[in-house]
């Protein structure tokens, strides 16, 4: 074991943890006496790209370690945030703990443009590793959710995953979450065949009245049954504000005049993270309307919404793992839910 570093850091989503990840973790354990595994995309709803909770991913990884090595590894769940500055600060805070380590090694492999995060930690020493074969978590999820022959899928996964993780996934298939995620996986493939992978322009509406915000329950995959902001795709000849108001009415039946909504507009923010949507590159323009009224207007789900409801702002933080894609973070941007 090297004494050059006090701590080694490994950052990833590990959806799922495969043999390439295991090689990186082995290097981290060689580099320092203590290892922090940062589990990204934490605290969010399950979806076809992020099927496993951070606790389940921690359990998978722990199952691959000896008792001695497991005692040297600490898991740190971190939200996506979709804001590079906030995300970097959250990772540093998670690694530092009560006593910030002085000498930190960052273990990583620059596989593509998504690996730019490795350059965001000045003061940490990057220890880059070469690619570990052709392993890719996206392909592994395609096998797990997309291959109908479970015996064949398990046999293939057994060659690409640590034995403990392969066994874990075989058992996880029996959990209630597996079937809807498999349906969502198939729906996303069909969606991309029909519409391509973008870029798409969408609108979302954050409507705030009397310390409540208006939410809709998604009727269809992806995200069926999850809470979301009213919104949708921009029509060909619409202005952004017109599109946001149209989608708001179509999904909730909110009976307020255009002039009332226009006067209540408090801000517009663009959310353009390349990974914010499972449907492909989707750039959304979120409109924040703060309306002064004593009574909450009647709403009802329609169009692509199974239901509509007014949610108390004070309860939104407890609903984080029930929101579609990055909609919790859009609310957080306007309403400061996590700061």
UniProtKB/TrEMBL annotation:
<dbReference type="InterPro" id="IPR004821">
    <property type="entry name" value="Cyt_trans-like"/>
</dbReference>
<dbReference type="InterPro" id="IPR014729">
    <property type="entry name" value="Rossmann-like_a/b/a_fold"/>
</dbReference>
<dbReference type="InterPro" id="IPR020084">
    <property type="entry name" value="NUDIX_hydrolase_CS"/>
</dbReference>
<dbReference type="Pfam" id="PF00293">
    <property type="entry name" value="NUDIX"/>
</dbReference>
<keyword id="KW-0378">Hydrolase</keyword>
<dbReference type="InterPro" id="IPR015797">
    <property type="entry name" value="NUDIX_hydrolase-like_dom_sf"/>
</dbReference>
<feature type="domain" description="Nudix hydrolase">
    <location>
        <begin position="196"/>
        <end position="334"/>
    </location>
</feature>
<protein>
    <submittedName>
        <fullName>Bifunctional nicotinamide-nucleotide adenylyltransferase/Nudix hydroxylase</fullName>
    </submittedName>
</protein>
<keyword id="KW-0808">Transferase</keyword>
<dbReference type="InterPro" id="IPR000086">
    <property type="entry name" value="NUDIX_hydrolase_dom"/>
</dbReference>
<keyword id="KW-0548">Nucleotidyltransferase</keyword>
<dbReference type="GO" id="GO:0016779">
    <property type="term" value="F:nucleotidyltransferase activity"/>
</dbReference>
<dbReference type="Pfam" id="PF01467">
    <property type="entry name" value="CTP_transf_like"/>
</dbReference>
């Amino acid at each position: 074991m090297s004494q050059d570093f006090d701590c080694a850091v490994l950052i990833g989503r590990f959806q799922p943890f495969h043999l390439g990840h295991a090689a990186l973790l082995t290097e981290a354990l060689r580099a320092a006496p203590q290892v922090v595994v940062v589990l990204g995309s934490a605290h969010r709803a399950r979806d076809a790209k992020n099927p496993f909770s951070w606790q389940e991913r921690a359990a998978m990884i722990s199952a691959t370690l000896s008792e001695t090595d497991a005692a040297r590894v600490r898991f740190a769940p971190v939200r996506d945030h979709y804001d590079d500055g906030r995300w970097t600060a959250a990772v540093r805070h998670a690694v530092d703990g009560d006593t910030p380590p002085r000498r930190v090694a960052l273990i990583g492999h620059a596989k593509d443009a998504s690996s730019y995060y490795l350059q965001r930690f000045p003061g940490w020493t990057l220890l880059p590793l070469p690619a570990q074969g052709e392993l890719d978590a996206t392909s592994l999820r395609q096998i797990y959710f997309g291959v109908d022959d479970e015996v064949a899928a398990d046999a293939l996964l057994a060659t690409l995953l640590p034995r403990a993780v392969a066994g874990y996934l075989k058992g996880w298939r029996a959990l209630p979450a597996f079937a809807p995620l498999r349906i969502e996986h198939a729906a996303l493939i069909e969606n991309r065949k029909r519409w391509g992978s973008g870029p798409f322009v969408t609108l979302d509406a954050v409507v705030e009245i009397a310390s409540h915000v208006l939410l809709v329950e998604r009727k269809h995959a992806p995200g069926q049954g999850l809470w979301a902001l009213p919104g949708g795709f921009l029509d060909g000849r619409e202005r952004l504000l017109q599109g946001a108001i149209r989608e708001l009415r179509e999904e909730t039946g909110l009976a307020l005049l255009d002039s009332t909504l226009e006067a209540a507009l408090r801000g517009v923010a663009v959310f353009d993270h390349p990974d914010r949507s499972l449907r492909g590159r989707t750039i959304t323009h979120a409109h924040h309307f703060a309306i002064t009224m004593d009574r909450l207007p009647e709403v009802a789900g329609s169009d692509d919404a199974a239901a509509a409801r007014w949610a108390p702002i004070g309860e939104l933080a407890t609903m984080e793992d029930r929101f579609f894609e990055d909609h919790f973070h859009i609310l957080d941007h306007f309403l400061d839910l996590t700061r």
